[in-house]
Amino acid sequence: MPFETGPYLKSAVFCETVLREADGVLSLIRLVDRLTISARGPSPPDTMPKTPYHITAVIMLISGEARGRHEIKIEPEEPSGLKTKPPFLATVQMEGEDRGANVILDMHLTFEMEGLYWFYIYFDDTLISKMPFRVMYARVSTGTQRPPTSS
Question: What is the C-alpha separation between 135 and 151, in angstroms, rounded?
Fold first, then answer.
């Protein structure tokens, strides 16, 4: 098994904000794994509009026997199964044993369709996990309002 001796995946999440305290401890604020995009009006569009979205991916690793510099890659996959967007890249330095490395990636995405997106996580070129993110589209028809009539 690859990774039987490390590195080990401690956590892989999406959140809105990461606080890094003076002692290096992280606080992850508002963990998210889904987004609802709403369109309101008398006649909202049938298909979801392109929606820019900012999210932070946090990947936490424990070295085990892994040492040295390695590349972390997050590759997005659309609900259609296509991987058309460029991957997000970071470099980590693994020091061995119980020492860890945290990767914090600000991701500016544009969602073009609703459905389940997958984000594949690679350590060098080996897939170590994947994270799901669901995008939902809600149409809210408000109708037209008429002024009140007096009798």
Answer: 48
Provide mean pLDDT across the span 95-108. Answer: 92
- Cis omega before residue 79 (within 30°)? no
The H or E element containing residue 5 is none
Instruction: Give the residues across from 73 on adjacent strands.
Output: 89, 122
Question: Sheet harboring 115-123: ordered strands across?
Answer: 34-41, 126-141, 115-123, 68-77, 88-94
pTM of the predicted model over 0.90: no
Task: Identify whether the C-beta of residue 37 lies closer than 8 Å to the C-beta of residue 135.
Answer: yes
The answer to whether residue 148 scores a pLDDT higher than 60 is: no
How far apart CA 26 and CA 102 sit, in angstroms, is 9
For residues 122 and 73, the answer to whether their CB atoms sit within 8 Å is: yes
Going from N- to C-terminal start, the domains of the chain cover 8-136
Task: Determine whether domain 8-136 maps to CATH 3.40.50.1820.
Answer: no
d(CA 112, CA 142): 24
DSSP H helical segments within the chain, as ranges? none
The answer to whether residue 2 scores a pLDDT higher than 60 is no
